[in-house]
Amino acid sequence: MRKNLHHLNALRSFEAAARQLSFTNAAHELCVTQAAISHQIRALEQSLGTQLFERRPRQVRLTVAGEQLLAVLSDSFDGIERVLASLGNPQVSTLQLAVTPTFSSKWLMPRLPRFIDRHPDIELHLHHTAQADVLTRGQVDMAVIWTTRPPPRLWARRLFGTALTPVCSPALERPEHPLSQPSAVCHYPLLHEDGPQDWQRWLTHVGLSVRATRRGLVIDDSNALLTAAMAGRGIALGRLALIADDLRSGRLVRPFAQTIEAEGAYWLIAQPSMVAQPRFRSLAQFLMDSQGDPDAAPAQPEPASPPPSTT
Hints:
Elements (H helix, E strand, L loop, with lengths): L7 H13 L2 H8 L3 H15 L4 E4 L2 E4 L1 H25 L4 E7 L1 H18 L3 E7 L13 E6 L7 E6 L2 E5 L22 E4 L3 H9 L12 E2 L2 H9 L4 E5 L4 H6 L10 E2 L3 E6 L7 H12 L22
Parallel strand pairs: 3-4, 3-5, 8-9, 8-10
Antiparallel strand pairs: 1-2, 5-12, 6-12, 7-10, 7-11
Helix pairs in contact: 1-2, 1-3, 1-4, 2-3
């Protein structure tokens, strides 16, 4: 007899709150009140005789016992979800992937048809977001994010970094200030992604004074940044790994050859419980194999050894 089965509702409340480290977010996910979540978890703690959360002002943290319970519950609920999905449609398994809009449009989309052709049994659902916590909120199975360091407690694999190079519309150049030398940037507005740090590093790299440049737009989205550059609003620093098609088509040109390495990189992240699943391994291997030309066939995937829980 399973004497603890009456705790199922409380365990579901605990798992949602522990995964998100928020009673409020757990309440939203389960469509109940925050008071109901708190009551369920208090009752569970009293029944178990141990504290699962450290409660602080506006913050909760898991105790050692809470972390142990979360690890078991995450695997268990993931297993239940997989079985229910297979019972509903045994021929197709779904995979929820979150990607940034620029990565999706510039890198993933040209390569995605090959994955779909090779894996007709996997139904891929794309979620476009720049929020790195989309995975910890339980909304997707895996995500590709741009970061200098992946979030803790997750499986993570670095896909690739990239160089940054000045790019602009071919119509931007003015005869009185030809774009033949890096010093010409002093006569054109610069387009900044999030802030001036990358341009400051590039200017220092080519031996120019940061103060000698004209101010320009600060844009918090790399897709919008490239759109502004194509529209002739100024010179942007584009990620070489993403702009090959724009350069081939002539929508963008590189006035100078000098590059700097971007401080971030694209990382594939997932909950550790996802790593052993065939659908995850199929897409992860495909992403790692597809870093070259989008028209080139990727290498055949090799059996992957179990990755570490974090990188």
